[in-house]
Amino acid sequence: MRSAPHILFAAGGTGGHVYPAIAVADALRRRIPDVHIRFAGTRNRMEWKAVPKAGYEMYPVTAAGLHRAQLHRNLALPFKLARSMVESYALVRRFDPDVAVGTGGYVSGPVLLAASMVGKPIVVQEQNAWPGLTNRLLGKRAATVHVAFEEARKHFPSDRCLSSGNPVRKELVAADREGSRRHYELPAGAFVIAVFGGSLGSRAVNEAIARNLETLLRDESVHVIWQSGRRYFDEIRSRVPTHPRLRLLEYVDRMDRAYGAADLVVCRSGALTCSELAITGTPSILIPSPNVAADHQTHNARSMVAAGAAEMISESMIHTLPEAISRLRGRPEILRDMSKAALDLARPDAADRIARDVLRLAGFAEETKEGESASTIPGRQAMHG
Description:
alpha/beta, Rossmann fold, 2 domains, six-stranded parallel sheet, 13 strands
């Protein structure tokens, strides 16, 4: 038997796929420092920089996905699929993983399929309430499927499906309200609205805030932290006048501080964002993107709303956003209830749960320390409102 496990991760395309994989890899390394970890991803996507920055080796695998909007681009799909399978099979043979873990993105399909074909156990981590086709298919071959939303369980074999939550960055678990507000130089008594549209930004969300910013700032206690995204920052900066209670940012690299400072967040409803809102207990107005496969952001948002942790506005009704903000601004008791409901959904130990399962499958099961529960988490209290 090996002295340390070999674990292969397949994750690509977006931070929502890549960062959960990194969080699980970090949890594995905390348990077994000499664990051998490799990542499979694509050269032209964000994982190619994010994974090495986190301290892990990357191996290139050709991404092959279906283009729903530009059908002519699918002509080369069979050749890309064949190439990705050859590359994935070669990687699996060369690295010889004890377990292969897929957290989503086009690269997950061929890598996990190749691992399964040579008899390696595979683990699927599904972030969304409505799983994509690739994960639904891989789930039939998986030793374990870890889901973040209870609604996703019905799509996978019940005897191999575990509700573990979405792995998030460790600093989010300890988001500090006072320290976060000092970072943004916010006065006592400020009501802080944080607006996020993802790393690239959202045109619809940006336009809604730009049109209504003057109205929002009429309340002298309101401060706005607005992350416009790299794609739209220059345009928004040229259109929106400076204001002492507005912090217009291209990108937020410390999301724990942004969540910690906010009384209310306006954002999309990607799976990772929903998990971060839960971990930090942050009330939110969710505006699902209509431009994602299977409309999974709407399913995520509905799950948050059903739990009482958020409100949802469809993009077609985004003009009602100022009224929704004003109503919640005037009802602090609702914000407190939303914060508590969000925390009730949180799974701060998601990365640890998944890491323990991966080690079990690899034959490196841990012994639970005396007096320690596998799901023990430091208690947290609602900090918003």
